[in-house]
What does this fold into?
Amino acid sequence: MQGILFDVDGILTDTAKFHFAAWSRLAQEKLQVELPVEFESNLKGVSRVDSLVRIMEYAGITDQYSLGQITALANEKNAYYVQAISQLTKADILPGIVAFLQELKEHDIPCAVASASKNAPLILKNLGLNSYFAVIADPAQVKHGKPAPDLFLAAAQKLQVPIQECVGIEDAVAGVAAIKAAGAVAVAVGDKIELQAADRVVSTTADLNYTSVNEAFRQSSS
Ligand code: BG6
Ligand code: MG
It folds into this structure.
């Protein structure tokens, strides 16, 4: 194991609630649609515009909006979301994450950010975690979002580590699919059934540590 590729939303901090609140407000105010709570997990790992398209498909209104209108709506949602995440601090880092990053640093394992979010740099800054990450893959520079492998491949390339030597850490079904499609080992945080495509699933971020992630790597790549 020579590199770790981290998802951000749901791994470093819990932003799904902010994404969902912003989408719910936009859907209600601009699309006259109520989103059911189950929709939250449907949007995990999915890019901003793809999330809006999923919401429009749910509402059955996909063909009523031009590309320009879709972009404007997505920007509006982002303004609500950025306002919410501007309040994030170190206290919002999920359990066990700092200890895990510290362990990786001690073992000289470089870390990359492989988040679908264009707001990932702002989130890292607010959480005070920048110094733990050697590189950030830019989601604006890749052709296909998760579940396509592009972001994880770009992250490994930027890290200059072969993808087969990397472990990706994810909480979303789309993200696990992306890690596997890229050819890295997938460690997922969350529900064992939902995330069964991963090589290892742990229940919470507090269960992430060097020994268990390295063991998952060795078992899966042998
Ligand atoms: C992912 C989130 O990390 O980033 C998704 O899980 C989100 O819910 C996506 O839609 C894009 O984020 P942003 O901040 O660029 O709108
Ligand atoms: Mg995530």
